[in-house]
Amino acid sequence: MRNPSSKAVWGAVLALAIWLPSPASAGPRQSAKLDKALQASSTSGESFDVIVRAKPGREASVKGKVGRHTSDVHVHDLIRAVSATLSAREIAELANDPDVDGVSLNADVSALASGPSGNPKKPSDGSDWSAQSSSNFASTVVADLKQALGLDNRFTGANTTVAIIDSGIATNIDFGTRILGQYVFWKGRQYYTLPYDNYGHGTHVAGLIGSSGATSNNKYAGIAPATKLLSLKVLDSKGTGKTSDVIDALEFAIANKTRFGINVINLSLGHPIYESAATDPLVQAVETAVRAGIVVVVAAGNYGFNPVTGQTGYAGIASPGNSPSAITVGAGVTNNTVTRTDDRLADYSSRGPTWYDGFAKPDILAPGQSLVSTDAVGSTLDLTYPGLVLKDGSAKFLRLSGSSMATGVVSGLIAVMLDANRAGAEQRWQDYQNLLKRNQRDPFPGAPLLTPNAVKALLEYSATPLHNANGVAYGVLEQGAGLVNGVGAVTLAYHIDTNRPAGQYWLMGAATPWNDFGGVMEPWSQTVIWGTALLRGTSVVDLRQAAWEDNIVWGTGAFAKVVSGMFSDDEDNIVWGTLALDEDNIVWGTSVPLSTVLMWSGNATLATNIVWGTATWAQNIVWGSSLVGYFNGQAIVWGTLADGEDNIVWGTLDEDNIVWGTLDDEDNIVWGTSQSRVSALALVGGSL
Question: 114 versus 178: which is more confidently predicted?
Fold first, then answer.
């Protein structure tokens, strides 16, 4: 494969082992249709909240079969599924039913705020990492987020609506009348309420997105201070909720997209990954929203270091951050300066790749450390952690950190980008009317919005790659394309003509690939992370690419090579690709099959595959021990390291006894074995 005397730099291998049970399988532990949480936790005396997915055309049948066991069956048309509480025996019966596509735990979701760097202590309720003394934040307050992103006040998001799926939004002068309403989704029920937030997390995120700054003299204004907000409440007073309720909220947002003018969905919440993205119900719902033309922004998670030892961890992306087409956001630290030379990756920010699939995530970083925003007075966070509350005159604000906050920043930036894109289209129309020298000008007919894929591409292409304190660049699996560059992304959005067809020039103005931050000219990444490869070339943004359309799942298409349990023929390049296991294909209901090769226009080309070195993997793997995503009390159970500098042993999976990714003699990959029949995909990836 390589010169065995050199250090292993071409990457560890992630083996996705799938057990193929016999039809006689009797228990929940013995079915590949169950996620790992159910496989490892089910016993005959227990009951579980589950989501049962039906095969296409078998929805009514599955609903009826679940209904035989309980009258409390909730239908999720969005993903062809129902949710219910069932016994282990009933789950086993359904897992062996040919009409059932799979059974997943209806997992608890939590708000993804975090404590500051270097302080892993978690509050007693286990839902949030926000219980920190104000002294921890004293020197790291970012007062002007717009300045950190290079933004001015020209565009405010006035023509956009952001739906925030969270703990609610408390009424506040800073939101004025821009809260379009609040809908609560709880235990399968939906109802309308006046805006309120009994936890405080959603209000903080909403402030980062769209606070007007009226109560702080613009000191704590949001990124898009005129955008409209729609609150879809799924989290309770402890900051927790159920996956099924988040799916209901996503379905509501899709159905009411036109009614409320929803352009962006913010999901600053998640749960550990228990299964492949192809079968994860929450990921399926997110992908459906993206196919509907809504930009979905999700938090990467705050599992970037071991809360006990402080060691850096990998593969800690939370669901639905493993959604290929969502914009998955990690947290950066600006150190309260405009210059980006001292900006860093927050140590708690989850790193990739995604568990099971090995997708390259996060997509982007944004400021997320010690951000001050709107306080929901009387909420759990407000009352429990007074050290996080700031007063400015009669107004109160809250200071939080985490990928939740970074996600809100990106959602606000996207609202501004969409506003700028519309303004650019209107200006080009007026220029055209002037060219015709008409006395009475035709009204602006409007223009198509930037697609979610296009927005993601512009954010990545214009991002600022960051370096650590030693000047070493962070890898793609740590920072994605880099820290969001507000001025660069908005400039691109303003000059792009969405009326142009695929393959034609749509960037109608000059875009220099660098920006001034604090007197330092910072170059753009000029890279888009497309699946497992890096897309480069000026044509990535100059021309409208077919890949940016709504019916394309991010990362699928060209150069997606499947290697089943073996190395590729290329000795020095182990290729990992998109899952292609018959009915498990990640097609997400689009008309484009995985085998389709996307043709890149102009000089846009897919470059080196994403590769990580064994030195990186000589750290802990977050979800890699015993049970993927299992929490032992308040601590995450982390992967185990074998003896030896380069040996890496990934977690054993209960009865299956699968040891993944052992490295022998530095270079040779010894594939994991199992007492069961397995089929494996070799997935390997690369650096920017």
Answer: 178
Distances (CA, A) of 669 to 1, 204, 664: 10, 46, 6
Domains of the chain, residue spans:
20-107, 109-419
Whether 604 and 539 have beta carbons less than 8 Å apart is answered as yes
Between CA 162 and CA 173, with CA 168 as vertex, the angle to 5 degrees is 75
Give dist(CA 378, CA 380) in Å, integer.
Answer: 7
Q: What percent of the chain has pLDDT over 90?
A: 64
Residues 6+ apart with CB under 8 A from 384: 123, 131
Q: What is the rounded distance in angstroms from the CA atom of residue 560 to the CA atom of residue 346? A: 31
Q: Where are the alpha helices (DSSP H) in 88-241?
A: 88-95, 145-149, 201-210
Answer for the pair 180, 376: CB distance below 8 angstroms, yes or no: no
What amino acid occupies position 541? V
How high is the pLDDT of residue 6?
27
Contacts of 172 (CB under 8 A, 6+ apart): 203, 207, 211, 215, 374
Give Cα separations from 415 to 135, 162, 218, 451, 504 (angstroms).
33, 7, 18, 13, 25
Q: Residue 445: how many CB atoms within 10 A of its CB?
A: 9
DSSP string for 308-323 = TT--BEES-PPBTTT-
Amino acid identity at 114: S
Q: Which two tokens stand for residue 19?
A: 């057990």
Q: Give the CA distances from residue 414 to residues 10, 196, 238, 421, in Å, rounded to whole numbers and listed in that order.
A: 35, 25, 29, 10
pTM of the predicted structure, to 2 decimals: 0.83
CA–CA separation, 385 vs 116, rounded Å? 14
Task: Compute the distance between CA of residue 675 and CA of residue 489 in angstroms, rounded to an integer.
Answer: 51
CA angle 678, 52, 322 (to 5 degrees): 65
Backbone angles phi and psi of 398, in degrees to 5: -125, 145
One fold for both 20-107 and 109-419? no
pLDDT at residue 117 greater than cutoff 50 = no
CA distance 142 to 532: 34
Return the CATH fold of 109-419: Rossmann fold (3.40.50)
What is the residue whose two structure tokens read 């302080």? 119
Residue 263 CB burial class (10 angstroms; 0-12, 13-18, ≥19): buried
* Catalytic positions, written as ranges: 166, 201, 404
**167's tokens:** 């703990």
- Residues 228, 171: Cα–Cα separation, whole Å: 13
Q: Are 316 and 347 in contact (CB under 8 A)?
A: no
- CB-based contact 623:16 (threshold 8 Å): no
The pLDDT confidence band at residue 28, using thresholds 50, 70 and 90, is very low
Which residue type occupies 109?
V
Residue at 536: amino acid letter:
R
Q: Please, what sign has the CA dihedral across residues 497, 503, 509, 511?
A: positive
Q: Which residues contact 77 (CB under 8 A, 6 or more apart)?
A: 59, 251
Assess if CATH 3.40.1000 describes domain 20-107. Answer: no
